[in-house]
Fold DUF19 domain-containing protein.
Amino acid sequence: MILSFLSFFFCFLFSSVHSASTNSSTNTSENVSKCLKEFYSIAYNGNDYNCTKSLNLFSNNSTSTFKTAKSCFLEVAEEECPQSQFRFLSTKYDQFLEDLNANDTNCSSLNNVYSAQKCQPLITDISVKIALVPDKNVKINDPTVLELIDLCNKTKKCLAENCYWKDDEKTTMREYCEIIELTNTEFTVCQQRIIKEAPDLSEFKCLYGFDFYLQTISFVVDKYTLKRDCTKEIMEDICGKEAVKDFEKNADIYLKNLRRLEKLADGIEETADSDE
């Protein structure tokens, strides 16, 4: 259930995260972060421009890389970037390299803004790959999930290496990755099995008339709060001990993200109501 919501809300939360068009230009420099973001995206996806395919743009030595990549960057910039940014790059490329290599500790400085753009295509790719994970019948070590977990780790590392990204953005990414990792556990496999097979749960007196199969966010939250022990009992009985091996930890991760989704859904609904 939760991955289908994550696919939408991930895009919603990160669609405007740290817009590249900051106001950190100086009298001598043009802020070309919007152009850099586009260049990194094209290079990451490996399409449209052949010259990007041989470049190691995501290395830590950005200055050396962009010295080598000058002709390619300008080729892309001429077609894909705002004209003011292309003019700056084509006439003051050495100044761009100087800005890129600066050792300014101000998190909003050009060198940090530029470095942060490497993370943007990773974030976008996560939102795309989340949508490819089947919401039902996910098996342990599904290649799609393993690829997504690896991408999550790379993205977390990218964000952690640059103070331009705020702590709440790093926390959001970490929590999204937790729920993606949770997909690759017997805990999630058991949830899906119970929903799919819909066994008769009338023998579990702990439910007291609670509809275990109702899939609204509020009812699923209740399964891991009001009916937490009962949910654990049902999962263990149907799926075995492996499904509840780390039940408290996994349930907390699941619950935390459900509450996040519930809060976001309420906020969107309130916004829609106020617009009417």
